[in-house]
Automatic annotation (TrEMBL):
Organism classification: Bacteria, Pseudomonadati, Pseudomonadota, Alphaproteobacteria, Rhodobacterales
Name the record gives this protein: Phenylacetic acid degradation protein PaaY
Source species of the chain: Pseudooceanicola albus
Family annotation (PANTHER family): DYNACTIN SUBUNIT P25, GAMMA CARBONIC ANHYDRASE-LIKE 1, MITOCHONDRIAL-RELATED
Disordered: region residues: 171-192
Pfam families: Hexapep (PF00132)
Amino acid sequence: MMGIYAYDGLVPVVDPEAYVHPEATLVGDVIIGAGCYVGPGAVLRGDFGRIEMRPGSNFQETCVAHAFPGKDVLVEEEGHVGHGAVLHGCRIGRNAMVGMNAVVMDEAVLGENVILGAMSFVRAGMEIPAGHMALGSPAKVIRALSEEEIAWKRAGTGVYRQLAFEAGRKMVPSEPLAAPEPDRRRAEAPRYDPLVLERRRFSGQP
């Protein structure tokens, strides 16, 4: 796999049931759990501190994770990090979502089931309480989330869990066509089936 680099003897760890795109970059003390998805162009740089993705979390295209010396980045189970986000020495709680192009700074904590809006800036040391939405630059807690909103977020992350299982066989290098084929079918997101994912329990078994 391209883009995997040991640093000072620390070799990144990728669970066999995770999917890391070949054009992502993992450096040093990086641990990727089962059922995780890491998209192309993402950089997880574990040279100053540990970067850990727990099972079922995702780290989408062009995201960056790094840490202030002696600090770690942790994305807990079912954490969801949107395209272009930057995490620096922070903790993303279980089933929390970091919106696209958001920045979360050192020692900040997003609690369980938090939704952080796109392009938000979470200052160092800020804590966003569980079950709330935060927006803005600097980010401010706006309101509590409904159960429906939390369920919607969990389902969205489930699509990425499904993608982690499917991408290894569906995403293959290829040459471009000169023109679309007749009756070309359209791309479709994976069919999220929580029962199938629960039965697999990240074991690869149907």
